[in-house]
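Z., the sequence and structure:
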Amino acid sequence: MIRSLLSRLAPPALMRAPGAARPGNGQGDAGTAPGRGRQARLRDWAELLRISALFTVPGDALAGAAAAGLRPNRGTAYAVGASLCLYEAGMALNDWADRDEDAVDRPHRPLPSGRISPTAALGAAGLLTAAGLTLAARAGRPALAVASALTATVWAYDLRLKHTPAAPAAMAAARALDLLLGATATRSARTTADTAPPAPASSGRDAHTPRGEAAAAAVLAAHTYAVTAVSRHEAHGGSTLTPLAALGATSTLGLLLARTPAQAGIVPAWSAAAYLRTAAVPCLHAALNPSPHLTQRAVGGGIRAMIPLQAALAARSGSAGTALTLLGLVPLARTLARKVSPT
């Protein structure tokens, strides 16, 4: 669905601002330069939407379903679809809002380089937002309410809060709401139509209760806060304390997630170890040498670490199968990140 949407939003005439020359070809019309076909346009949109980060999104809904004590159902599928659309809406809106700043700091990005027009990016953000809310509505009114709050948070972050001290808290709230969207949509679908039995009982004391869902959302929010704080320095580097603080936060979360009773099996500890390796090591490197390159690597590692973190949360809630499925996405995310940066 997203591929079809992007191909419609990115006709040749919208790839660049009117009259702007494509770098390196000396031509003023985006539709006449040789070699700029459908695949090239899709690559431009893949870069704008940072599709390598998409693998970090489905786990929010799946971890939310696990925290609710339910197996994934059609409500979970709607939540995953809504999350993907709203996440990509935020990516497009982010670059639209930052187009002037990126013209100085990141001139290679699709908007400042003229490969995608600001109008097309803003239009994509609006259409993806509408698609996300529509999918959430299919899961029920409670899910739509959570998705609406998530949408408001995403748009407020991109348009107002990104360059304020509230930015990390806004991003943390968005991730927490995304997990709660999965829990709410799964529960709503179960109460109306789904008859599947609940997931196996977890050894966690607060699992499968509203308190358990809130705890899982809080863990995801804490990680997101740390990564967002580091990302504020990725363009210029220079901060040692911020990646050091993120290192402390991710290490603490990893150790807490690894502390599970023996009967829970090896999956929670395995997931927690994968999380620590993905998130903490790049933060350590950035703390020792806060260059823009290493800081960006710390941000990329923090984004990819969402997947094993979601797996650890699902495993602690008794959904080992969901956790193993999510861990299977890690190599795919790593491979795609080499082609399209997640930051």
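The chain has 15 helices and no strands. The CA atoms of residues 231 and 299 lie 6 Å apart.

Let me know what you think.
H.
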